[in-house]
Design a protein that fits this description.
Elements: H1 17-20, H2 24-31, E1 55-63, H3 76-85, E2 95-98, E3 109-116, E4 119-137, E5 140-151, E6 157-168, E7 174-184, H4 190-220
Antiparallel strand pairs: 1-7, 2-3, 3-4, 4-5, 5-6, 6-7
Helix pairs in contact: 3-4
Length: 243
């Protein structure tokens, strides 16, 4: 638990989607995302290159293996899928998501509350794709489930993050994967722009690496790493970017 937080400053509702929706400010900010457009062109995939200024990152986290064949009931692959669906793998000391859990995953708006420079910023993203398929990679079959979200107007970045759980059917190897395509968006506030230029990349990498480590611990049942929904939320100053 974050040693910089004190019990007196914790909110008294749990960090579940239902719990965070009890905060009227968070619910209002989430509902305002409905009419916001993406802040980049998703159809221009051919232009998502490093030469065009995009950062492209891939992370791979091994998870406990299963017997060969389709995913086992209650096995690593299914446990990872459940954690991904509820955004439990994200470290709530860095980012938490507010959303309407009863709505379909694809097309769902998420309000991300990101801790940065000692403040909490609220940004919007939208789930832009959900996959459940068997792929053939280098002559091997792999079962893949995952989803991706794209950044909305007002976000400090433009781009897309993809979260997937893979099971190689021939060997039973299970992996959690993150694929990121991003670059900085136009930031009007000069203080935030400077801070993001200095620390934004570091925090992005930190988030992804912590997500991978948490996923491995949660799937393995490590009692020292609780799900995000069981961690109290510390009250901190807020600044809503993109306004």
């Amino acid at each position: 638990m974050d040693s910089g937080s004190t019990p007196e400053r914790w909110r008294r509702f749990p960090l579940t989607a239902e719990g965070t929706l009890r905060d009227p400010r968070a619910r209002r900010a989430l509902d305002e995302l409905h009419d916001k457009p993406l802040n980049f062109d998703r159809n221009d995939r051919a232009g998502w290159t490093r030469q065009a200024g995009w950062r492209i990152d891939d992370y791979r986290q091994p998870l406990p293996s299963e017997p060969p064949g389709q995913p086992q009931p209650g096995g690593s692959w299914e446990r990872a899928r459940a954690l991904m669906r509820d955004y439990e793998f994200a470290d709530p000391r860095i980012v938490r998501a507010v959303y309407h859990p009863g709505r379909p995953l694809e097309g769902r708006d998420l309000l991300l509350e990101v801790r940065f420079l000692g403040l909490r910023f609220r940004f919007g993203v939208r789930v832009s794709g959900v996959i459940d398929e068997v792929r053939r990679v280098a002559g091997r079959e792999v079962r893949v489930w995952g989803w991706s979200y794209s950044t909305l107007q007002g976000h400090l970045e433009t781009g897309q993050m993809e979260y997937e759980v893979w099971k190689w059917l021939d060997m039973g190897t299970v992996e959690f994967r993150i694929h990121v395509v991003s670059r900085a968006s136009r930031i009007g506030n000069p203080f935030i722009r400077l801070g993001f230029r200095l620390f934004g990349r570091r925090e992005q990498v930190r988030f992804a690496r912590r997500a991978c480590a948490r996923m491995a611990c949660l799937v393995s049942g490590d009692a020292q790493v609780p799900p995000a929904s069981s961690i109290a939320v510390a009250e901190e100053p807020r600044l809503r970017a993109g306004r």
